Amino acid sequence: MTTGSLTRRGLLAGGTAAAGMSVLQVSGSAQALGTGSAESVPWLRNQGDPPESFPGGPDDEVVLWEDQPPPFPPGNGIGQQLVWDELSTRLTPTDNFFFVSHYNQPVIDPVTWRLGIDGLVARPRSLSLASLTSRPRERVEFTLECAGNTAFPPFIGGIGNAVWGGAPLAPLLKSAKPMASATEVVFWGTDAGAVTIRDDSGVISPGSTGTGTPDPDNPDRWDITINEQFARSMTVAEAMAPGNLLCYEMNGRPLPIEHGYPVRLIAPGWYGVANVKWLSRIELIDHRYAGRFMARDYVTFREQTDALGKVTWSFETVGRYRLKSAPAKVTRNSTGGRSRYQVIGVAWGGTIARVEVSIDGGPWRQARVVKGGRHGDPDQGLAWKLWTFDWGRARSGRHTVASRAIDVNGAVQPKPDDPVIADRRTYWEANQQITRTIVLPS
After folding, report:
1. Read out DSSP for 89-150?
2. For 389, what's the count of Cα atoms within 13 Å in the CB-facing half-sphere?
3. Which end of the chain, N or C, is less packed with Cβ atoms under 10 Å?
4. What is the pLDDT of residues 174-209, one digit of tens each?
5. Considering all CA atoms of the chain, what is the largest pairwise distance in Å, rounded to the nearest integer?
6. Which domains does the chain have, with CATH numbers?
7. Strand, coil or helix: 419
8. pLDDT tens for each residue of 40-66
């Protein structure tokens, strides 16, 4: 493996080329990844950031990880995955921010678009984009992560950090005067697609709009395909939480189409699937919503065996994100003729108390957590926290680098063999400790 010579100082001299380098990717375990080549990538800070939020020096070079992921197959509704080695700003540029589309990407006319708030409310609302943007605006810096991120190669870049802006949700819900019987809030997207439902003993017909075939083993039961609209729900209390936004702005500009233009839900602290894009309707109901993305998909299955050997299965809808960290990259500074190395990474998914690093499976040693950004209370744990670890004059050759986050309550990011990870039979909520492999040059 060889190392290139492009430094942060050199890229800064290149002007606008820097913008295209600001991407991010969280990797999974070292064993799961492929191999790539090495080059140097700069580390930049966002305009207006205080100096202490910017780890690294102008002459630092990045030594790329050896365990680079394989290419992601096209045509899966996933784009712009972020590359850890190229992490160069605290805020992920909008043009390089990952997206996941479960169905289509609807193109919506902002002039005719309306957002309904209805169901079990005394005063239904219908909001235009103009009326929404005229309301008081709030901003929150929030790290958005897909619930399947780092679960398997090559999907290891489903994460990014942005400042989201929009109208607070709670005052609008209150203005619609929810009825006492309302317990759940359903957020309906505009996107929709074909969904096949199998092994449901209650289905007796595909109806007038679906299609299907009788079960060959039981002609009275059907496997059906319907057109289902994207939707997610949360309780009324969860929807009323401060920080939830009807978001129309991302990093100071209108949402791009792939990120939910004209309006999406931003629910800080929840996995990406809960942050519904292309919002069309908010419905208050008196029961649990059991659509695809609440009851059939984005559900974590766990198979657990107790001390007596009894096996039980549990099923939990993906909701709030989990404590996590990852080594982003290793930088080398050769000032004075001798190389010194630094590990730079991020931690998120809770209020971070500290981050620890293990080299080559050795003892855990504390990293330095860098001061957070300007938007939102850094103690809220909404945005990722940068951290650095001084590796010093490390020997050349192959090494492993692992990190773990610890929150203010003492919770520790789990090991890959922890039952909370190992007992899963679905790939959601993969917040295991991440180990990377690197070859340091001679």
Report:
1. -SSPPGGG--EE-SS------TTT-EEEEEESBSS-EEEEHHHHHTSPPEEEEEEEE-TTTT
2. 26
3. C
4. 999 999 999 999 999 999 999 988 888 888 888 889
5. 79
6. 8-99+320-440 (2.60.40.650), 100-147+162-300 (3.90.420.10)
7. helix
8. 333 445 555 554 445 667 778 999 999
